[in-house]
């Protein structure tokens, strides 16, 4: 999650980014002074396993599972993506884009770079650009989700800036898979489950969370988190077994829903 516009802290420890890796075994944190990785092997203690201060103002840092591959974006060069081997301290490659990088997503097959009006799909093995989705609806928050499953390797992103339309793209066969009319209001959050067969969505209205089958787009579940106005859903996340779905919001609450069939 990009925290650059939300953090009120100052100084070298100001948080700019925080996110889990794909299997939730580590936490990546970007700050004014660099980035850190923490192990999540214990729920009692957050153990720091790596720290880098070579790159300042790290606004995006994404680790590939528990490997040494990390994708980094700095506020000092917001259009430039660096892919590094952090244990060796070496840069594998770097790419520059036409606009600010808003989000980066990785799995074992693909690396996705999200700009405000385009998405770049890279082959993670050699970092070649396989496909570009151009002229997407304005997406200033860089909202997108990439399945971590090798067989169901789907990308989801907003299909409209005015309604909650979700475009689902097959990143292996490089073709559109479906369009899901998920909500009446613009999208605020997206998340795949670990199998890549379910997609959770929330709109800017924030009261209803829906779960759809992928790639079919059939509505499987609908949850209501309350009727309070002006609720912003910050994130959605499935448990690794796909049985539970959590939603965090600006009300400083976390809701957990059980997906009962």
Overview of the molecule:
The protein is an all-beta fold and 261 residues long. It has a domain at 141-261: YVTN repeat-like/Quinoprotein amine dehydrogenase (Methylamine Dehydrogenase, Chain H). Helix content is 0%, strand content 52%. It is built from no helices and 23 strands. It has strands spanning 15-20, 26-31, 34-39, 47-52, 58-63, 69-74, 77-85, 90-96, 103-106, 110-114, 118-123, 129-134, 145-146, 154-158, 164-170, 175-183, 187-192, 198-203, 208-213, 219-224, 233-238, 244-249, 254-258. The strands form six sheets. Strands 1-2-3-4 form a four-stranded antiparallel sheet, with no helix packed on it. The chain has a four-stranded antiparallel sheet with strand order 5-6-7-8, with no helix packed on it. The chain starts with 14 loop residues before the first strand and ends with a strand.
Itemize the secondary structure elements and their pairings.
Blueprint: E1 15-20, E2 26-31, E3 34-39, E4 47-52, E5 58-63, E6 69-74, E7 77-85, E8 90-96, E9 103-106, E10 110-114, E11 118-123, E12 129-134, E13 145-146, E14 154-158, E15 164-170, E16 175-183, E17 187-192, E18 198-203, E19 208-213, E20 219-224, E21 233-238, E22 244-249, E23 254-258
GO molecular function: phosphatidylinositol-3-phosphate binding
Subunit structure: Interacts with TECPR1. Interacts with ATG16L1. Interacts with ATG5. Interacts with WIPI1. Interacts with WDR45. May interact with NUDC. Interacts with ULK1 and RB1CC1.
Protein name: WD repeat domain phosphoinositide-interacting protein 2
């Amino acid at each position: 999650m990009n925290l650059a516009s939300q953090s009120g802290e100052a100084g070298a420890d100001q948080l700019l980014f925080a996110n889990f890796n794909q299997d939730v075994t580590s936490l990546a944190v970007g700050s004014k002074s660099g980035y850190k990785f923490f192990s999540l092997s214990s729920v009692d203690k957050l153990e720091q396993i790596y720290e880098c201060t070579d790159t300042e103002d790290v606004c995006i840092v994404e680790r590939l599972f528990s490997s040494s591959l990390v994708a980094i974006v700095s506020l000092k060069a917001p259009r430039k993506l660096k892919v590094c081997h952090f244990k060796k301290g070496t840069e594998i490659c770097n790419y520059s884009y036409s606009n600010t990088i808003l989000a980066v997503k990785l799995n074992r097959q693909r690396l996705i770079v999200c700009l405000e009006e385009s998405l770049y799909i890279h082959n993670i093995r050699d970092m070649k650009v396989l496909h570009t989705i151009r002229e997407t609806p304005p997406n200033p928050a860089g909202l997108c989700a990439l399945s971590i499953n090798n067989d169901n390797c789907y990308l989801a992103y907003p299909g409209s800036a005015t309604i909650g339309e979700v475009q689902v793209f097959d990143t292996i066969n490089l073709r559109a898979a479906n369009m899901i009319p998920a909500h009446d209001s613009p999208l605020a959050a997206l998340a795949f489950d670990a199998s890549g067969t379910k997609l959770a969505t929330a709109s800017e209205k924030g009261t209803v969370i829906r779960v759809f089958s992928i790639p079919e787009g059939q509505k499987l579940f609908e949850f209501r988190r309350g009727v309070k106005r002006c609720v912003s859903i910050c994130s959605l996340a499935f448990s690794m077994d796909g049985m539970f779905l959590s939603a965090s919001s600006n009300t400083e609450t976390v809701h957990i829903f059980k997906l009962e069939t």
